[in-house]
Fold each of these.
Amino acid sequence: MAVVIFEIFRYDPEKDQDPYYKKYAVEVDEKTTVIQVLRKIKDKADGSLTFRKGCGCSICGICAMRVDGKARLACKTRIADMVDIKAAGEHPEVRIDPISTAHAIKDLVIDESIFWEQLKRAMPWLNSGREDSVEPNQMSQEEVDSIDGAQDCIHCHACTSSCDTAQADPDFLGPEALTKLYRYAKDPRDKSTYERLSAATEGNLWNCVRAFTCIDECPKGISPADKIAELHEMAVDKGVDPGRAARHAQHFIHSLRKTGKLDEKMMPIKTLRAGVVGFVPDTIKMVSKGKMPPLFIRKIDDHKEVWHLVELAKDVKEAEQEKEND
């Protein structure tokens, strides 16, 4: 047994004006988990400590917290995996916060309503168009594999609470809801794919900046950022009005395929459409300074080879995804 100091986020809106941290010394061994530590504190040291505990099997996601700054499931996280509990004469410290301090309502418990509202906007249900049918509506194993991972989400809120875009943009659906949306948008039985992708676009799908914190923070090993990238491709393929970011990407791809390089003069027109009028003064300045891109773009030699490299990159990505599924 060893003694570890736990610095725990405390906040009771009925008594505290601001949150604070309180330290507790707890004996642990090599198998002691975070949730067991919290139970010990509540049972023996401070009965007012408030937290959520669910299945204890890493399935429900309700015990997600930030332990030393990283999102973890308290029921499966062992203290010995984070600090050296055998260090002689030392009392290592571990800090425990709610999964989102911005939504804390009491100690380690958060208000989940914003996350559930985002999920509702993602339409997390199957619309098979077969309400009156009693016949099986089965999927092939290959089709099941295509959504494998997305359906493993346990809604612990680790990804969305870590997402900078979600914190800055209240209209952004967030990686958790978009992962669930992806699960049904990819389901071949679903009849509402276009509506889902429209909901994703209205939820600022294209505002994802690919910081990959959602991947780093997910305790189940899901890759929400990759699912969001696939939703981008699906939205373009389905003709969903994608907004500026997607139009920018579409023109880039079109120009690359056609000439082997970027047609810079058309980029603002294709991206901004009517909004390009606001850049007329800047355009005049560029022309006067000789900075205007050429009016006519000449194809580079063997420009099809450039596009061939793009196709090869896609093949490599698909092969990597198939390997992960296997």
Note: The chain has a mean pLDDT of 88.
Amino acid sequence: MEMPAVIRRRTRLSPEARREQLMQCAIEVFSKRGLGRAGHAEIAQLAQVSVATVFNYFSNREQLVDHVLIQIEDFFGHMVRKHFIDIPGQQNHSAHQAIHDYLADFVDAAIDNPQFTYIWLEWSSSIREDTWPRYLALLDSNIAIISNKIAPAIASGDINTYLTTTEFARSLCNQGYMILQLVNQPQAMDRESIIAFVEKYVTSALAKQTPP
């Protein structure tokens, strides 16, 4: 597949800058080619360097996949930690505000950093023997962090749901699939409408029915 060039002429970079450039190209290539097919040659073509240069930084395909997944783990793990881990001594958001901000961040990621979300989508929905356990570890970590934040709100009834704390946290993690569908449909909704729709689903569709 023909890849667009990121750098149009070869430029001498420091080792740190070259590694960063190659990783940016790797994210681009993996988002288009997939975890199972992307490789050193496509990254070299996009970065306009030799294939040997890419191998100097990522000595085999397993190492290349590992470094790409580290980027995805950091990106989505940070998104969860930023909104659902309270910092002592600071004014922290309510559980409802944390949910809103997390969903808004995911929508922004789908719009502004689609390469990261495309790789996440494949990783989280393809049960590949070599990568699936690692995704489950990330998911379990995110569920635990979210659960710790929302548990008091569910216990007090501030979040009105028929789900357990863990079930609600898992459902929240899974809203990424709906967000990507809404962002990438032919006649996509605008950002605010997507956030409002998904938040309404989370807070209303999963709520307990109020007795008449």
Note: The domain at 66-205 is CATH 1.10.357.10 (Tetracycline Repressor; domain 2).
